[in-house]
Design goal:
Length: about 110
Amino acid sequence: MDCIFCKIAEGVIPSNKVYEDEYCLAFHDINPQTPIHVLVIPKAHIVSADEVTVENSAFVTKIFEAIPTIAKQAGLVGGYRIISNCGEDACQSVKHLHFHLMGGKKLPEQMG
Ligand code: DGP
C-alpha cells in the first residue's frame, strides 16, 4: 500500500515528531497553516473518519486520550482547533485518517 502516513508511522519517511505511543504518532505538518500545526495519525491504516468502525475505533479513542499531552508538548498553551478533513468535499489530500491540531495564535471563528 502506497500511503505516505503509513510510511511516516513506520519511520520509513522521517517526520518532525512531537509524540508517539503504541497507537498513534504526532508530528509537525510539512505545510503549516497556523504557527503551530501538528498532525495526529493512527498507526493503523484507516482511510478517514468515514471508515471508523467498532473494530478500529480504539485508535480514535487512544488518539483523543493522547491529545492533551500532544497539545502540551507542541506548545499549544492558549487552546487549539482539531480538524479532520474527510473525503473530497472536505479536500482530504492524504487518505489516512489524521487530526490537525492547530493553534499558536487566536484563530478566526469562521472557516470560510
Ligand atoms: P489534509 O488536506 O486534511 O489531507 O491534510 C494533509 C496534511 O498533510 C497537509 O496539511 C500537509 C500534510 N503532509 C502531507 N505530506 C506530508 C509529509 O510528508 N510530512 C508531513 N509532516 N506532513 C505532510
